[in-house]
Write a structure and sequence with these properties.
This protein has 68 residues and is of the alpha+beta class. It has a domain of 42 residues. It is built from two helices and two strands, in the order αββα. It has a two-stranded antiparallel ribbon. The protein starts with 9 loop residues before the first helix and ends with a helix. This is AMP-dependent synthetase/ligase domain-containing protein. Pfam families: AMP-binding. InterPro entries: AMP-dep_synth/lig_dom.
Amino acid sequence: MIWPVRMVSWSWLLEMKADFIKPQDNSMHYLEFNPDVDATIFYTSCTTGRPKGTIGTHRNTVIVAFAS
């Protein structure tokens, strides 16, 4: 099965950033989220069969980043 993938250009991302990050004031903005919500899917290299995926949470992503 082929899954459709949306491709974007670097210039489009820069334009989106410019539109998204416009200073409203000098205060910091923080996002609230549940650290145990799914964030990524890790896939095996399928050396022994079909590829398999496992889900990583935001908490897992932050722990790996700090451990690096």
